[in-house]
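Quick review question:
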């Protein structure tokens, strides 16, 4: 049986808008999403969909069809520590917190998917798992969810996800094959010298000068040691040290971020950051402490999974509305943890509408979406799952 999932999703558009606006009014930060997860569980319970709690405030639900294949669909739930400056009926009611990245829409779309696929579960030749992930904006709940076994019982074979995109017109989607998002490694370097009077630098070991040499040398890792055809970024974003113009301090702390598109480049840049820093500091008689954090990995779209989304999207919105993206994003996305475990694909759902004034960037105080994107997102997710399980 062929299903017109867009028509079905349009029939519940009013409900989707109401749900999304409720979430938008009540944003919660990572691992604080108690109200949000409560609403999700209440919705699932009303449909008779089994679920379990995971990663503290996360939820994993399963719709059991007839068959052994299982597809997972993921949505993130958390908001950002940002003041909502929109003037609308559904703006945030929580001071200093806002859904400025569209996770309210993602959660709403997944609930819409749950409602529709659960209503036809007897037609599904397998299972659908629903992952409601907390804390995507911070440490990523996906990693904890995976450690807690959400990909098992039943075993997940494929995972899909989406993100609203303010640079793509509503009614369209963007799909990137291969690498979609960068890996992230925040770092902190503490450089220790010997304090002295600014007029007698020979009496000390200047950590400010050492830090200056380190910062310049680190830039050459990217510009001179990686292929110029492969994107990578090493940014020093903060420098702290010293108390007065005429005092050489004991130590300086610098911190920054590494973003890479390939796993091998990620390992190489971390290794070279340590070698370069230690080499410069020791040659200048200082000492250093280096801390490189392991944040989100690269997000890779599996070719087969991406082709499945491409096919489903063309069924729902037509060939001309599916945009194949050429460039990856240097931003990070915790869906990458899922993509490291199972064949996965992630795409961008257009939510821009200049005529409605919906043009503002994500992570900004005026961010909003054209809610016409909600049923489109629901329909494409449903179609992809339906096709895969057939």
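Suggested answer, residue by residue:
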């Amino acid at each position: 049986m062929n299903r017109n999932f867009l028509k079905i999703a349009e029939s519940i558009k009013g409900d989707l808008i109401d749900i999304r606006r409720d979430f938008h009014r009540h944003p919660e930060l990572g691992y604080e999403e108690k109200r949000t997860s409560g609403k999700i569980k209440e919705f699932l319970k009303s449909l008779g969909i089994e679920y379990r709690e995971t990663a503290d405030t996360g939820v994993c639900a399963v719709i059991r069809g007839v068959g052994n294949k299982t597809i997972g669909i993921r949505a993130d739930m958390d908001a950002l520590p940002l003041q909502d400056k929109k003037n609308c009926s559904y703006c945030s009611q929580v001071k200093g917190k806002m859904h400025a990245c569209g996770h309210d829409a993602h959660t709403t779309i997944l609930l819409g998917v749950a409602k529709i696929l659960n209503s036809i579960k007897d037609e599904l030749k397998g299972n659908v798992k629903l992952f409601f992930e907390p804390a995507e904006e911070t440490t990523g709940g996906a990693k904890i969810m995976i450690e807690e076994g959400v990909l098992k019982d039943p075993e997940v074979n494929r995972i899909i996800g989406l993100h609203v995109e303010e640079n793509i017109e509503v009614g369209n989607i963007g799909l990137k094959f291969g690498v979609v998002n960068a890996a992230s490694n925040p770092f902190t370097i503490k450089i220790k010298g010997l304090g002295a009077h600014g007029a007698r630098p020979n009496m000390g070991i200047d950590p400010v000068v050492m830090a200056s040499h380190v910062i310049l040398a680190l830039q050459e890792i990217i510009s001179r040691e990686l292929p110029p055809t492969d994107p990578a970024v090493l940014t020093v974003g903060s420098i702290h040290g010293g108390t007065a113009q005429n005092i050489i301090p004991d130590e300086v702390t610098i911190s920054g971020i590494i973003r890479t598109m390939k796993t091998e480049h990620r390992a190489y840049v971390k290794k070279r950051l340590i070698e370069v820093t230690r080499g410069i500091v020791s040659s200048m008689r200082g000492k250093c402490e280096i801390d490189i954090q392991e944040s989100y990995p690269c997000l890779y779209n599996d070719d087969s999974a991406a082709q499945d989304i491409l096919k489903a999207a063309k069924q729902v919105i037509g060939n001309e509305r599916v945009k194949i993206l050429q460039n990856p994003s240097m931003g990070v996305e915790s869906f990458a943890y899922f993509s490291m475990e199972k064949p996965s694909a992630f795409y961008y759902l257009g939510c821009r509408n200049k005529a409605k004034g919906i043009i503002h960037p994500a992570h900004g105080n005026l961010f909003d979406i054209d809610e016409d994107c909600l049923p489109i997102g629901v329909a494409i997710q449903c179609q992809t799952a339906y096709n895969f399980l057939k």
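Why it works: The CA atoms of residues 60 and 384 lie 19 Å apart. The chain is about 35% helix and 25% strand.
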